[in-house]
Amino acid sequence: MIRLECDYAEGAHERILRRLFETNLEQTPGYGEDHYCARAREYIRDLCRDGSLDVHFLVGGTQTNAAVITAGLRPHQGVIAASSGHIAVHESGAIESYGHKVITLPSGDGKLSALSVRRVYENHWDDVTHEHMVQPAMVYISQPTENGTLYSRAELEDIWDVCRDCGLLLYIDGARLGYGLMSEACDVTLPELACLCDAFSIGGTKQGMLFGEALVLSNPALKRDFRYIMKQHGGMLAKGRLLGVQFCSMLEDGLYFDLAREADKLAMDIRRIFEDRGFPMLFDSYTNQQYPVLPDHLLAQLEKRFAFCFWEKVDGEHTAVRVCTSWATERRAVKELVDALDRILGP
């Protein structure tokens, strides 16, 4: 079985495993106060070209999202997100469990627009009974989105302008940020992204690490007491150096971005494979996540050899699935997919 349903099916890049073994018996301070975490923070600040950024290392994406969102909100406030946003559909109500409503907006491609954000803000304050409603105070977006789509620099700038104008915090979930930045369609650099939000994350779990997310904070209000927030959310790993070692291994010479670039290339190969054979894409994704719409009879044949992620039923005879490459996907997997398609479809 060739698994193409997600980008976290494999363990970790061999460099990380080797470094963890080599440093296994080294004694360091705990809770992220070791020299590996310090070095990884400097790598990230250098990549962002901003020495003032606070960088914290947490274990998983849901934990990271919940920590930064609750840090930025007061008890009566909520966070705006697309209806397909990860915090709205794939985190078991984690944000709500901390007492904050996720204010969802419809989105065909998974993205929010600056206009839709402004409308939510203005509609709230134009309502004379607004104190009876959850107050929008933060905007959550992801780059790339849950649907593999990307925000352009102009779109991010517009959303950032609205957030500053309305006094809203902007948080960018970067669980797959490397795949986004290395996409052929991306026109946003990491330093630019760091200047267009109050906080963002750099994902490791889905990009070659055993586990780990780096949370980058630029807003002083979020920086204050954030390690207390981490501790409350179970995010202060005692053996924090395990996170530092992994991020150092991935960032020291650009391996993180090289792996993401290759995964994107393979994903675009897969997209062309399906499109050349007449199968449309549900979303216009240029990242490692692709969403072909397939006849159910063809999908049943392919699933004997390949694992995909069900996405949605398009009609009674067609299903959209997610086909996902990862940092570890090999070219032979793509070739086998081509061969299988051609065998089933025939001449």
Q: Could you characterize the architecture of this molecule?
A:
This protein is an alpha/beta fold. 42% of the residues lie in helices and 18% in strands. It contains 15 helices and 13 strands. Strands 2-8-7-6-5-3-4 form a seven-stranded mixed β-sheet, sandwiched between helices. The two termini are 25 Å apart.
Please give the structural blueprint:
Layout: E1 2-3, H1 14-22, H2 35-48, E2 54-58, H3 61-72, E3 77-82, H4 86-89, H5 94-97, E4 102-105, H6 114-126, E5 135-142, H7 153-166, E6 169-173, H8 177-181, H9 190-194, E7 199-203, E8 213-217, H10 220-223, H11 226-232, H12 241-251, H13 255-276, E9 289-290, E10 293-295, H14 296-302, E11 306-307, E12 309-315, E13 318-324, H15 331-345
Parallel strand pairs: 1-11, 3-4, 3-5, 5-6, 6-7
Antiparallel strand pairs: 2-8, 7-8, 9-13, 10-13, 12-13
- Total number of helical segments? 15
Terminal-residue CA separation: 25 Å
Strand order of the largest sheet: 2-8-7-6-5-3-4
User: Helix and strand succession?
Assistant: EHHEHEHHEHEHEHHEEHHHHEEHEEEH
The geometry reads as globular
What portion of residues is helical? 40-55%
Please give the largest β-sheet.
7 strands, mixed
Q: How many strand elements?
A: 13
SSE class: alpha/beta
Overall average residue pLDDT: 97
Low-confidence stretches: none
Radius of gyration: 21 Å
Sheet-strand content, in percent, reads 15-25%
